[in-house]
Amino acid sequence: xxxxxxxxxxxxxxxxxxxxxxxxxxxxxxxASIVTLDGRTISSVLVTITNNVNKPQIYYTSENIIAxxxxxxxxxxxxxxxxxxxxxxSDYVVSLNFEDESTEQYFLWLDSDSGSIMNRxxxxxxxxxxxxxxxxxxxxxx
Length: 142
Description:
This protein is an alpha+beta fold and 142 residues long. It has helices spanning 2-28, 65-77, 131-141; strands at residues 36-37, 40-49, 57-61, 79-80, 92-98, 103-110, 115-119, 127-128. Strands 1, 2, 3, 4, 5, 6, 7 and 8 form an eight-stranded antiparallel β-sheet that branches. Strand 5 (92-98) and strand 6 form a beta hairpin. The radius of gyration is 23 Å and the shape is globular.
């Protein structure tokens, strides 16, 4: 009977140790439902289509986290063009709405094989989008 108590006690201790380790690992994983840019958490993305009056806006909330991640990845992965630019009217205006109630806007030019983006706060600098970002953005915008 002592052997069974010892075995049961050992199994319980082992089980609690495993549960504790798995909880610790689960707590260390980043929250996949939070997307940040420059240290601020994004609550939603609003895409205004400037050349289509029938479907003027597309709105993504935290329920569409993959869409928000796609827009942020495109911004972060864009490559700066050298020099000062002069561009035509953009196809889209992308508004990133943050939890602190601030907003950051980007002008977006996008077609099937090329794309550029410009921060509204810096209209003299243009960034080109990598091909994978162009393809992913087209899935959410077109």
